[in-house]
Amino acid sequence: MDLLIKGIDKNENKCKVCGNEIYSDIIIEKSLLCQYCNNKISNISVEDFEYDYYKEKVKCWLLSNYNIK
């Protein structure tokens, strides 16, 4: 059974990295990550080509939701 999670923020049920709509995945500090992005982020190293892409996506999300300078 898939549970629909509502009310996290303006983009309800969207992964914060890839933007795909997700069901029953991971909630981390009021943000949603799909299993694919969570696995990629947790296994990525600084030398990987995708590192900058994921770093910028997460950085943009943090800056838009928190007063981080």
Question: Helices, strands, pairings?
Answer:
Layout: E1 26-28, E2 31-33, H1 35-43, H2 51-65
Antiparallel strand pairs: 1-2
InterPro entries: Sigma-G_inhibitor_Gin
Pfam families: Gin (PF10764)
Protein name: CsfB protein
In brief:
This is CsfB protein. With 69 residues, the chain is α+β, with helices and mostly antiparallel strands. It has one domain (1-69).
Report the structural category.
alpha+beta
Using the CA coordinates, give the radius of gyration.
13 Å
Biggest β-sheet description: 2 strands, antiparallel
Total helix count?
Answer: 2
Number of domains: 1
Strand content: 5-15%
Order of H and E elements:
EEHH
> What's the total count of β strands?
2
Helix content: 25-40%
User: End-to-end distance, in Å?
Assistant: 41 Å
Average pLDDT: 71
